Amino acid sequence: MAQKTKNTKKIVGISIAVLLFGGAVVWFFTGSGSASAYVPPQPAVIVAKPVRGTIADSITISGYVEAKAMIPVVPFVQGTITEYNVQAGDYVEKDQILAKIDDAAYRQQFLQAEAGYWGYQSTFERVENLYKSGAATQQNYDSTKAQRDAAKAQYDLAKLQLDYTEVKASISGTVLIADQAVGSIGTQTTPVAVIADLANQVVRLKVPEKYFDLFMMEKDSIRISVLRPGQEGMYDDAETSATIETIAPYVNAESKNFMVVCRLDDPGERFRPGMYVKVTATYRSYDNQPLLPLTARKLDGGCYSYNPATQTVTYHQFENVITDNDNFAVPGEFGDSLFVVDGVNTILDGQVVTARE
Length: 357
Hints:
Blueprint: H1 2-30, E1 44-48, E2 51-67, E3 70-73, E4 79-84, E5 91-92, E6 97-101, H2 104-132, H3 138-163, E7 166-168, E8 173-177, E9 185-186, E10 193-196, E11 201-208, H4 212-217, E12 223-228, E13 238-247, E14 257-264, E15 276-293, E16 303-307, E17 312-316, E18 327-329, E19 338-342, E20 354-356
Parallel strand pairs: 1-20
Antiparallel strand pairs: 1-19, 2-11, 2-15, 3-10, 4-6, 4-9, 5-8, 6-7, 8-10, 11-14, 12-13, 12-15, 13-14, 15-18, 16-17, 16-19
Helix pairs in contact: 2-3
């Protein structure tokens, strides 16, 4: 019986402790005192005034650099390559010998054609003298002359084929591809090299149809810049201007794009065929505009001004906002206002904030 009484007292003691703890919690959150109402901290933001500057209407389209002309150099006669004097990256002059084809068979063919030609030439000269003196007929003269001319054609062809065993560069430029070797077979279907003039590089842009009139009517006033993104921590971006060379006079019915070819004004050493670039076409500029960085815009295009008197922010959704890759313009009447430039996604319209310029 004593043990039962002892357990009962223990249970009653635990119950009283739980009730006291619960009462303390209720008093802490609902009773009078400093902890009765939880006040969340004010969001911290960075504010700044717009900076006056120039902004432009533009479009940016991705593309790839191409050599305006990539010339494959192929041998016009077939045979074993006996000399190969070029490798990728070499600069070659027009008519420089890039490779040689085994010329043994072509040289024999030339010697045979040469002997035949001079034999017919000698016969023709004798018949011509006899014809002039009346000792040979017109038929003999014409027949001999035809045989001489046919032999001359064979001789010229044999000489040309012999000359073709020296494979020469057709233009001056840089060798892009040179994947043949001594001992391989040179044919008309396999280039011994591909040459391009790297001072003449272009970008072919597929421009949306809605810009067709703009490009056609304002071609001379559109400014083109070509940017090759650099490697973070290694090299900065490479940039050059470009000139519009051609605009396709039609729109592709399937893609709804038209082709614009832009020539790089100064490719330098940072641009090469095949490289990815971003091309920006600027067609209208606005000077002395109040500009804010794009970080001041929400995903829906809106932004917040800041009132230092009330420490509150006001949401704005401006119409016809001009933007570029870095900034956007606000209306002139907001030129001296403060705007939230960092932290726009953590605040709401009319909210009190902690601002730092």
